[in-house]
Amino acid sequence: MEADRLTMKTLCATAGEGAAARGWLYFTDVNRIEASQWQHLDRLWQVYSAGKFGISVQRKLWLAVGQNWEKFWLQIGWKRDGSFTRYPDGFTWGLEAPKGHLPLFNQIRGNKTLETVFRHPAWSSLGN
Question: Is the dihedral of CA 91, 122, 66, 127 positive or negative?
Fold first, then answer.
């Protein structure tokens, strides 16, 4: 949980005063963050999870399900039995979590921010 909080804090600080004060990102904040910052945070998640977690991991899963949010939420464990997972206790904060389960970002605020993250130029070298 601490790594997820630190990730959000770092992204908000990088996105500017508004995001830093709120403690979370609007979709309009996403492109204020340089590709190198996204890539650096993604590498940290991948290294410390043996490739199980990270932004690019989530993006690949999202693309693999045809950008279908419902299928994506179910696959990564953010939705179960027709309901979104409740923060923080409903989430799994260890390597036993489903692939792509972390980081959370704005899980409780809908998909517009996450879609903007997935479409960020940082991932252009990954295809699609």
Answer: negative
